[in-house]
Amino acid sequence: LIDKATNLLRQGYQNQMRYRQTDGSFGVWEKSGSSVFLTAFVATSMQTASKYMNDIDAAMVEKALDWLASKQHNSGRFDEIGKVWHKDMQGGLRNGVALTSYVLTALLENDIAKVKHAVVIQNGMNYLSNQLALINNPYDLSIATYAMMLNGHTIKKEALDKLIDMSISDNNKKERYWGTTNQIETTAYALLSFVMAEKYLDGIPVMNWLVNQRCVTGSFPRTQDTFVGLKALTKMAEKISPSRNDYTVQLK
């Protein structure tokens, strides 16, 4: 089973490389159509896949992140420069707070990029922190909060508190979610923030709701739902796994 999964990862990697542009970005077409979203998505995916296979070229990921960093506006925000034809892949991402947060998470989750592009990250964080009071969309706030958590930003708690205030409790408070157009992805980013904040008990109702949204295959309806949803559930499981709570008590 592990070999089969690794082979599928390898096939996906080889197929994705067909869409790599000469400048290190990734696009819709094989030789054109560079996209900020797709480049961030591929860099993040490859970063995750590198834990399970040795085929991933770290220099390729680094160059993709370098390209992303070069696309930041003076204001600190990121906007799309290309066109994403398959909108279901993009989830709730759009220009401004959401896409800026998405790019920042890609940079922050890479050990090399978060040092190499520290100035870019700081500028992006300044943009997000200046926008916080104006954010009233749960999706935008959810992904922005996760970026702030990864960065250890001074207003990360303020962002998380505001996000929690937007949530909906259901099933006698056994479930918690965020009611918006992209509610699975939004709730998944929220769970990632709960894990980063070590709010594991508070995160259990969020986890319960996410688990109940899965299809019979174990995945979620859309690409971004599946990518972020499974990531959040995995991170949460790592923290609340029974194996992490085994203790030996020595009586004297």
Keywords:
252 residues; mainly alpha; two-stranded antiparallel ribbon; Glycosyltransferase; single chain; A2M/Complement_sys; 12 helices; 2 domains
Could you explain how this protein is built, in words?
- The protein is mainly α and 252 residues long.
- It folds into 2 domains: 1-134, Glycosyltransferase; 137-240, Alpha/alpha barrel (Glycosyltransferase), CATH 1.50.10.
- The chain has helices at 2-16, 36-49, 58-69, 87-90, 97-108, 113-116, 118-131, 138-151, 156-165, 183-196, 200-211, 223-240; strands at 168-170, 175-177.
- It has a two-stranded antiparallel sheet with strand order 1-2.
- Strand 1 (168-170) and strand 2 form a beta hairpin.
- Helix 10 (183-196) runs parallel beside helix 12 (223-240).
- It is globular, with a radius of gyration of 19 Å.
- Residues 247-252 have low confidence and may be disordered.
